[in-house]
Amino acid sequence: MASRLNPYISFAGDARQAMEFYKSVFGGELTLNTFGESGMAGTPAADQIMHSQLDSPSGYTIMASDTPPGMEHEPGTNVSVSLSGDDGEELRGYWEKLSAEGTVSVPFEKQMWGDEFGACTDKFGISWMVNVIQS
């Protein structure tokens, strides 16, 4: 297996909902493992996500978990996810879904470097950058 680079996102108890949302955006195969399945059965965190992974048909991988009890959680302050490529139709579709119910910080439009680009924070507090490379 080749090395790959992908985001790993921590959530404050809503990792399952966030990952199901991302699956609705990107499609693909989602695996979810709870703390309860990993030795913490019977605890308040038993149903929370210890590890999850979404592998999309386009080759994107997103990993995430709920923040374990006792650890601090600061959503969106230490991660941005960048989507880029030359398939404008695909990337514009992702943009529409990610920015819906979120906050747009840079409108998706042609930029001074010639590409279409937008930046937003989705409804779960995660920052996204979408760039359509112009040939």
Overview of the molecule:
This is PhnB protein. Pfam families: 3-dmu-9_3-mt. InterPro entries: Glyas_Bleomycin-R_OHBP_Dase (IPR029068), PhnB-like (IPR028973). With 135 residues, the chain is α/β, with parallel strands linked by helices. The chain has 2 domains: 59 residues, 2,3-Dihydroxybiphenyl 1,2-Dioxygenase, domain 1 (Roll), CATH 3.10.180; 52 residues, Signal recognition particle alu RNA binding heterodimer, srp9/1 (2-Layer Sandwich), CATH 3.30.720. The protein contains 2 helices and 8 strands, in the order βαββββαβββ. The strands form 2 sheets. The protein has a 4-stranded mixed beta sheet with strand order 1-4-3-2, covered by helices on one side. It has a 4-stranded mixed beta sheet with strand order 5-8-7-6, covered by helices on one side. A hairpin with a 5-residue loop joins strand 7 and strand 8. The model has no long low-confidence stretch (mean pLDDT 89).
**For this structure, what is the CATH class of the largest domain?**
Alpha Beta
| Count of spatially separate domains | 2
Global outline: elongated
What is the first-to-last residue Cα distance? Answer: 31 Å
Tell me which CATH architecture of the largest domain applies here.
Roll
Describe the strand arrangement of the main beta sheet, using strand numbers.
Answer: 1-4-3-2
How many strand elements?
8
Main sheet attributes: strand count, strand direction, barrel closure: 4 strands, mixed
Pfam family, one: 3-dmu-9_3-mt
Protein name: PhnB protein
